[in-house]
Specification:
Layout (H helix, E strand, L loop, with lengths): L12 E8 L3 E5 L13 E7 L4 E12 L3 H7 L4 H5 L4 H5 L4 E12 L8 E3 L11 E4 L2 H15 L4 E7 L6 E5 H6 L2 E4 L6 H12 L7 E5 L11 E5 L12 E2 L8 H8 L7 H23 L2 H5 L11 H13 L1 E3 L5 E3 L7 H12 L4 H4 L7 H13 L8 E5 L8 H18 L8 E5 L14 H16 L5 E7 L7 H5 L3 E4 L5 H8 L8 H5 L7 E6 L6 E5 L15 H5 L8 H10 L4
Parallel strand pairs: 10-18, 10-19, 11-16, 11-17, 12-13, 12-16, 17-18
Antiparallel strand pairs: 1-2, 1-7, 2-5, 3-4, 3-7, 4-5, 5-6, 8-9, 8-21, 14-15, 19-20, 20-21
Length: 586
């Protein structure tokens, strides 16, 4: 039988097991072997001599000449051991140095390397006095090569090189990476944006990729392989450009409309909600009666994506707000809703006349719902000819106050289209949520706009995999992202994180035997990541490939000192002021 490991007792031997926990082992390491036990390195511990069976572990802690107190912190007896205690003093008599390792996988050889059994489940634990060897040099190269070979297939996503062995390519299972959602997390300057660009670049090489990037700052406008869309800004309201995206107001459901226009803290808020919904429902039914089949009318609800005239809604609210009805002695008195809608009407008026909201209220085909909605779906999903099927939506000109609602609206439309598409016609779709902490915040329940977005994305996180909708959540502040969303991400790519809260958030998604990886997070190099989850055979430290130069996002850190050392740039401040005033860079 071909062997995976060929350990040399003189150069690879680390030590013997002196303490066994559920997933952690303590090794007695003699002084001359201590140099092999470096934190973060891989160790193989023999489980069986009959076959090549090993526990694969990572070095977590090294203690030279441990004291009794240090051993007591390591040896934490269970109930049975407490009845028949094994004292730290008795272990101390046997050991010279203690190395704590965490088991992360098991390997069992079969008929040949190509049929070896490799699993992250821990089925057997090494015995006391089992021998441990450091996986170095040729053994490390062969082991990393095995991981790559196991991952290599038509569904492999080639990310870069293993940090432990640069000769082996690091590959993920592309199906598993997207099936149950994934998250890319990292502090500013850690290489997060070009990690996203690199994954998109590799995905663009597939024949029928469908990915949509929610780009809040125009960072991904440089991607040559992607179709660029932008939500219509103030200068685009008369545009017929296929790259300009309009999202007519009638696509908003009742909750989204309420979050946009109604202040729940007002005394008359309940009247505003009730009448606003009734009038909108009546207006939608009028349009349905004129244009639709009976089965569509029968299934109608207030949330149906049916066009209606918002000006008619405003007129009816104005009438009720000023209504006078006959009173006692024939004298007129105020109607039931007189004065209830003043502030609501003001808010409606402000938004209807503000060109920044023109993509909602000034669409040239507002009342043509079938054609308008079909066109929007085609803009978002369809691709032709040599296009890659990756779409980037630039939300940078959407007003900040309604940004969460609009991003949530687009996500909801895409999910619903996937949901209502016949199963045999459904094509998988991935949504890349860049800067997710801005519209999927942990405390979004306190903000009605953010709450609406959270509801839409949480539904996708929980149910999307059944209908071919996946989330790729990207954030520099994981501690600020909704726990519900992150908890559904079965794959985590964490680049450097320097903030303690962010580190703790990532650590909370790790099992106890993997927390050693959390300690590495602040020390990672730019573009280096820890990958955990279903898509990898073994939690791995990987140096990611950079995207091609022409596909690098506009997110690179500016070199201040270098720039200050060069000639001053000529700046057109008149143009900057003009863009500032019209809220557009076009």
């Amino acid at each position: 039988m071909a062997k995976l490991f060929d350990f040399n007792d003189e150069t690879d031997y680390v030590g013997k097991v002196v303490y066994v926990d559920t997933t952690k082992l303590s090794l007695d390491v003699k002084p001359k072997e201590l140099k092999l036990a470096r934190v973060g390195r891989l160790v193989a511990v023999k489980i069986s001599s009959a076959v090549e069976e090993w526990a694969i572990a990572i070095v977590e802690r090294v203690i030279k000449n441990p004291s009794t107190e240090q051993l007591k912190n390591i040896v934490q007896p269970n109930e049975e051991e407490e009845a028949n205690p094994v004292s730290a003093d008795s272990i101390l008599e046997r050991v010279s140095n203690i190395v704590t390792i965490a088991i992360v996988a098991t390997f069992k050889g079969k008929k040949g390397i190509e049929t070896n059994y490799f699993s992250r489940s821990i089925q057997e634990i090494p015995d006391i006095d089992a021998e441990a060897f450091s996986i170095e040099s040729d053994n490390l190269e062969k082991f990393m090569g095995l991981l790559s070979a196991k991952s290599k297939s038509d569904v492999s996503l080639d990310l870069g090189k293993y940090s432990l062995s640069e000769k082996a390519r690091a590959q993920l299972n592309g199906d598993k990476f997207f099936q149950r959602h994934a998250a890319i997390l990292g502090s500013t300057g850690s290489g997060k944006s070009w990690t996203v660009a690199s994954i998109l670049e590799k995905a663009s090489e597939l024949p029928t990729t469908k990915m949509i990037v929610f780009d809040l700052h125009g960072e991904y406008s440089t991607l040559k392989f992607a179709k660029q869309l932008r939500v219509a800004g103030p200068d685009d309201l008369d545009s017929k450009d296929e790259e300009v995206l309009f999202l007519p107001y009638w696509l908003l459901n009742s909750e989204e409309m309420q979050a946009m226009f109604i202040d729940r803290s007002e005394f008359s808020a309940h009247n505003q909600v009730m009448m606003f919904q009734k009038i909108v429902g009546d207006e939608k039914l009028k349009h349905l009666n004129d244009n639709d089949k009976q089965e569509v009318i029968d299934s109608f609800t207030i949330d149906s994506p049916v066009s209606y005239c918002l000006n008619s809604v405003v007129e009816e609210l104005s009438r009720l707000n000023e209504e006078m009805v006959p009173g006692a002695n024939g004298k007129p008195k105020k109607g039931d809703y007189n004065g209830s809608f003043g502030r609501l009407l003001t808010r409606l008026s402000v938004k209807l006349t503000d060109k920044r909201y023109g993509f909602l209220f000034q669409h040239p085909d507002q009342l043509n719902d079938y054609d308008a909605l079909t066109k929007i779906i085609q803009q978002l999903i369809e691709f032709e000819g040599d296009e890659s099927g990756i779409k980037v939506i630039d939300f940078s000109e959407v007003p900040t106050d309604i940004m969460p609602i609009i991003i949530g609206l687009v996500a909801r439309i895409l999910y619903n289209i996937q949901f209502w598409t016949e199963k045999e016609e459904r094509h998988p779709l991935a949504l890349v949520c860049d800067e997710a902490h801005l519209y999927l915040p942990k405390k979004g329940e306190n903000n009605p706009n953010e709450k609406r977005a959270l509801e839409n994305f949480e539904k996708i996180a929980k149910e999307g995999r059944k209908y071919g909708v996946s989330l790729l959540v990207v954030s520099q502040r994981p501690s600020d992202v909704s726990e519900t969303i992150l908890s559904q991400c079965n794959n985590i790519m964490s680049l450097r994180l320097s903030n303690k809260q962010d580190q703790s958030t990532v650590k909370s998604f790790m099992s106890d035997n993997l927390t050693v990886f959390a300690d590495i997070l602040p020390t990672l190099d730019v573009g280096e990541t820890i990958v955990l989850g279903d898509a990898v055979l073994l939690p791995s430290r990987i140096m990611l490939d950079m995207p091609k130069e022409e596909n690098r996002p506009l997110s690179s850190t500016i070199d201040f000192w270098t720039e200050w050392n060069e000639e001053e740039k000529k700046t057109d401040y008149n143009k900057a002021v003009e863009n500032y005033r019209k809220q557009s860079r076009k």
